[in-house]
């Protein structure tokens, strides 16, 4: 077991998510959404604005005309999409790097994060949830703890892998047993430190669902299911592979049939090439 | 899906989770092919099966072989490799796409008298498969376990 506090201090080496991301999320969740206020906040950050405009104009979004201002982006794409893109821009730098502990090459974790977030949003919209952009964002950043834990996983990989391959542990359970903390807990600690909403912190903490959990709320279930589907599709998956637990009760509770789930997978499969464009631009 | 007889080509399918990768290589015609399919049955969505037949086992596998035959390959000269079909822990049959993907290829091959030369399926690891068209050499990569020639 390692010094947990020392491991958590590794969060200080992450590039913090810009404050503007929290601000636009708060604005989007407020009772009255002011488009010009949101455009103003984003425009203060020139790099973010440039990234946002570049991404908006990708084929992925199939916009009818070229977008050349933040205000226009909000009007044409909607506030929710713009919030998602702001968070993508904020999370990209940390999540793009290679993570040796999980045997993830450069871009793999980013590919996985964006793909699972897109799946989560689709599931959230299917269920007509109130905050699909919150679910998108939590899913996007749910594995930020892997960036902090990667070196510790590398140092203990043989022990972790033994527990997973020979003793039936999930990868998260093995991380917790060997290192003393798992990547979901480290991710939640980072989210707390950066001042994310309590709801987002909990979604990140519970994205693999604690074993003894019952009465799991719908938002958490959606993040969990999106993560599971993404590892099954296999976009940017590392040495932890599919070694996480499947919870049929959670999928049943959401009311998705086997056919519904396969349709989501097929729909995502069809978009994969466009998703690659999105990954490289954001 | 890709099928070629260009000896310089290296065919790769990355990060197979519950999907299946099928690699074929004709040792006489030196034709190589690779398919990465995601789901077992095209009945799920006929429109998607038309626009992307390689997404499904029952449309993708025939298309792979047909394309290889078109370049002069013959079934009796083929090396056939099947990898992928992993599962999440505790799926216990429910929504077990990996297993169904595997059963789909076995069924199609059985019906068409295709022998599998190497198979590495199931478990909970994801896999990457690479084929050199020049000599049919094939490698399997499992994250955390390295690369091995098969």
Structure description:
The complex is a heterodimer of chains A (282) and B (150). Chain A is 67% helix and 0% strand. Chain A is an all-alpha fold and 282 residues long. The longest helix of chain A has 24 residues, at 258-281. In chain B, 23% of the residues lie in helices and 33% in strands. In chain B, the strands form two sheets. In chain B, strands 1-4-3-5-6 form a five-stranded mixed β-sheet. Chain B is globular. The model of chain B has no long low-confidence stretch (mean pLDDT 95). At the A-B interface, helix 10, helix 14 and helix 16 of A face strand 2 of B.
Over the alpha carbons, how many angstroms does the gyration radius of chain A reach? 18 Å
Task: Please report the total strand number of chain A as a whole number.
Answer: 0
| Beta strand % of chain A | under 5%
Structural class, judged by helices and strands of chain A? mainly alpha
Oligomeric assembly: heterodimer
Spans of at least 5 consecutive residues with low confidence of chain B? none
Q: Please bin the fraction of helical residues of chain B.
A: 10-25%
Strand order in the largest sheet of chain B: 1-4-3-5-6
Low-confidence stretches of chain A are none
Distance between the termini of chain B: 21 Å
Would you spell out the secondary-structure blueprint of this structure?
The complex is a heterodimer of chains A (282) and B (150).
Chain A: H1 4-8, H2 19-29, H3 35-43, H4 46-56, H5 70-77, H6 79-96, H7 108-126, H8 132-141, H9 144-155, H10 157-167, H11 171-179, H12 183-193, H13 198-205, H14 218-233, H15 248-254, H16 258-281
Helix pairs in contact in A: 2-6, 3-5, 4-6, 5-6, 6-7, 6-8, 7-8, 7-14, 7-16, 8-13, 8-14, 9-12, 10-11, 12-13, 14-15
Chain B: E1 2-4, E2 10-16, E3 20-26, E4 32-37, H1 46-51, H2 57-70, E5 78-84, H3 97-111, E6 118-121, E7 127-132, E8 138-142, E9 146-149
Parallel strand pairs in B: 5-6
Antiparallel strand pairs in B: 1-4, 2-7, 3-4, 3-5, 7-8, 8-9
